[in-house]
Design a protein that fits this description.
single chain; 157 residues; alpha+beta; Arc Repressor Mutant, subunit A; Alpha-Beta Plaits; 4-stranded antiparallel β-sheet
Length: 157
């Protein structure tokens, strides 16, 4: 359950995870210890998965983003898990989602340049057993790029 205070804490932390408990409590008209207990509870429940730092991909040399749509030859019991296992080994793949419809997977990939993606494509992705087709799209401009979720209170009905 996420109540109104939990939602406010989560929304504040998503924008500034380094905010002190004192400042957070002050902004939310709550005590430091109450905020700390709620954060601990949300970590234990897995609502807060991790504390991390967001990097500017351009400034760390990963300015090319590719979306690769992957179609598998079959949906056998070994093909899909094998693909998932293989893809998790590539640090360039920063997201992998299974989909319903014509495409089986979509990959979000960050690389320094097109040649790096071409190497990943030919040397690795296209060689995974069961892959039938990969359609790649190079992102030109990120119109919106955020990790912030619009958290609202969740109550039982």
């Amino acid at each position: 359950m996420i109540d109104e205070l939990d939602a406010k804490i989560l929304n504040k932390l998503q924008n500034n995870a380094t905010m002190s408990l004192q400042d957070l409590g002050g902004e939310l008209a709550s005590s430091r210890s109450a905020v700390w207990r709620r954060i601990q509870r949300m970590e234990e429940l897995g609502i807060i998965k991790q504390h991390t730092v967001l990097l500017d991909p351009e400034k760390v040399g990963l300015g090319v983003m590719v979306f690769a749509q992957v179609k598998m030859q079959a949906h056998g019991q070994s093909d899909l898990p094998n693909f998932i296992e293989q893809v998790q080994r590539f640090p360039e793949v920063i997201e992998c989602h299974t989909l319903m419809g014509d495409v089986d997977f979509i990959l979000k990939i960050r690389v320094p340049d097109i040649q790096s993606y071409e190497k990943l494509f030919w040397d690795h992705l296209s060689r995974i057993d069961g892959v039938r087709e990969i359609n790649s799209s190079i992102a030109l401009t990120a119109v919106k790029d955020t990790t912030v979720l619009n958290v609202q209170p969740v109550t039982m009905k």
